[in-house]
Structure formats: structure tokens, C-alpha cells
Amino acid sequence: MVAILFIFLVLFLVGTAPIFIALSGSTAIAYAFFSDMDLVLILQRSFAGVNKLSLISIPMFIFAANIMSEGGLSRRIIDLANAFVGHIPGGLGMTVILASLFFGAISGSAPATVVAIGGLLYPALLEKGYSKEYSAGVVTAAGSLGVIIPPSVTMIVYGVVTGASVGALFMAGFGAGIIYALIYMIYTYIMAKRSPNVEKAKKASWRERGRAFVKSAWAIGVPVIILGGIYSGFFTPTEASCVAVVYSMIVALFIYREMNLKQLIDCARKSALTTIQVMSLLAAASVFAYVLTEQGVTVKLAEAVLSVSSNKYVILLMMNIVLLICGMFLDGCSIITILGPLFYPIALQAGIDPIHLGIVIVVNTAIGMFTPPFGLNLFVASTITKQPILKVSKGVLPFIIISVIALLIITYIPDISLFIPRLVYKSW
């Protein structure tokens, strides 16, 4: 096990090997030189890690998000959000947050949310007097709502890794996502009040709001159908992802008519590339997780943590610290597939609800998406805003601080996450 971890750290820190190569390669090299185990097992565990029906939802949600971005659905959601909050101090910043909230209910991906919302609203923020730092920061940080608001790719991965109910995780994500977004909006309001250069839009009339709602009705139908279908039991999260693709395709091609066949094929190509990256990572991480379990590392770590403290609040704090540090270097899927099998038994022994644990981990990975030096959203936002990574990083610093505050609230008030699942599952 020591050899595996050493080789993994060398490959990772050198920076020449992708994460999935570092994960699977470290295991293969260590087993080849220090064990008699058949290396075929590594291939078998890799395929077993991705040979799960629930993972079908990942490429489907990614595809649906790309269609919405290219087919005009995202723009109409933005117009609707702006009609209701655009006149409030910091209204356009709040529009970014609300639009990311809506789009997150479709894409399940933080980078996809940054591209869809930031690409449209970043220039508008600058025109309305918002600073470059705040504008880059809000589109980068608000994109992380795509991870927290269901459906979420990272929630699906957590469910697959730990066996937790994906449906319950989706329900729990609402409470956490709303608290997270509210804290962002409060900060935006205070910031705008203190910034005389920020313009305030004219208040939209109820007729204009109604018009914006009518125009966006088909776009809003995507999260309504997805989440309504899941929670009513009409279809599973996996089936919902396929419904989302078909519905968004019909709306983009035949109702809004802002997408042609060539653009649809391009969306499919982009989605396939993203899916390959995620699945390669899951395959490699499943091998790593198997070795951790087979070597008894999970049990030993649980015993070590519990020996420090058996208080679940102290354990949750320790987990948050580890997750926030990991989020600086790894993406959410990697963190969950590596640490999920380690933290899950610890949580059960400490009396921490596994769904609550899942939401805490997901919120941590969301913060990691825009935490320097390797937060993926930073690189995506740098491309969109045409600002250096260093300047984008400066813009997200206030959001990192308020995100940690939101994380602590979500961590230590479990009812925020568990309220809706308890309503649905009476025996919870």
C-alpha cells in the first residue's frame, strides 16, 4: 500500500501523468513489483467501476446541458432571472447566481454552468459597472451550484461508490443549494451597495415578467420534468437523464429553432469527450478504492480518526479540512471515488447520516472547483473572461470565504439537507 501511494504521489506531483493514469498506473506498477496478484484484476476492477447502469445518466445530463447552452434555452432562463431581480442592488450579479441555480438543475456540471452562464453574462456585468474581479469571481463561483443542485454528476458518483440513494441525495441537494445561493446573493447585495459604479436596472413590470416567463416556459420545463418525474416516482434518475436529452433536443430544434443538425452533432461530440474524461477517471479510481478496501486501509483509517475523537462534529470538521485541501488539487469525481470509501464507514460508526455526509462532501467538491491552484472552473473562466488565472483567482477569494461559511452552516445543521428526504421517506 505504501508503494502504491508513493508511486501515485510521484506521478501526480510530476504533473506529466493525468489523474487516471496516476491512479491506475500506481496500482499496476506496485502490484507488478511487490505482489503476486494477477494484473488482470486491475482491468477487471476498471471495467467493473464503470459497468453500472446508474452511470448512464452522466453522459446524458452532460449532453442535455450542451444542447441547452447551444439551443437558446439557457439564454431564456437568464432573461427570466433578470426580470425578477435585475432592479435590486447587485441584481445582475444575482441573475448570474439564479441562472446558475436553474442551469445546475439541468446540467449537473460546474464547468458546463460556467460556460453557459458566464459566456453570456460576463460582458454584461462589465457593462453595468461591476469590477473585473467580481465579475470573474461570481461567474466562476456560481458555476459550482451545478454540482450542488440536483441532478448532480458528483452526487451520482457518490451514490455509486457508497451505495447511498441517489434520489435521496438529489432531494437533499435542494436545501444545501438554496442556502449556498442565498449567501452568495447577500454578499452580492452588500458589495453592490458599497460600489457606486454598479448600475441598477430598471424594475421590470409584471407584464414584462410575465412575457419573460412565457418565453422561458419551455426551458423551465427541463428541470420541472426531470425533478418532478424523479420525485413522483415516474422514472429513475437514469431515465430522467434520457428524458432531459430528448426534451431539450425537441425544444432546441423544433420550438425555439436555434439549433441545426450540425450543431447537435457538435454538442454530441463535446459531450462524448467530457464523458470519456469522467469515465476514465472513475475506472481508475475504482481500482484505487478497491485496493484501499482490500488492504484494510478504510478500517484502519476509521479506527485512527475515531481514536482522535468520537464526536461526530469534530469528525465532520476534520473531514471538511481534508476535503478542502484535496479540492485544491483534485476534481470532485476523483475526491469522491478516493475518499468516499474511506469516509463512509467512519461516518456510519460516528452516527453521521450517509446522505448528510454525501451533501457535505459534494459542497466541499463544489468549493474545490474554483479553489486555486487547480480548480477546474478557474481554467474555464479564464478562457471565457480572457483574464489570467491569477486575476480570476483573486476574484474568487471572497467567494471562497463565504462558501466556507455556507459549508459550515450545511455541515452543522443537518436538517437543511435532510428536511426534504425526511418528508418523502417517512421512515428516514
The major sheet is characterized as:
none
Cα radius of gyration in angstroms: 21 Å
Our count of domains comes out at 1
Which percent band covers the strand fraction? under 5%
Tell me what you see in this structure.
The chain has one domain. Helices cover 79% and strands 0% of the residues. It has 21 helices and no strands. The protein has helices at 2-14, 19-34, 40-50, 57-70, 73-85, 91-107, 110-127, 132-142, 145-148, 153-162, 166-193, 206-231, 237-255, 261-294, 297-308, 312-327, 332-350, 354-368, 376-385, 389-412, 415-424. The two termini are 38 Å apart. The model has no long low-confidence stretch (mean pLDDT 80).
Quick overview:
The chain is mostly helical. Helix content is 79%, strand content 0%. The chain has one domain (51-424).
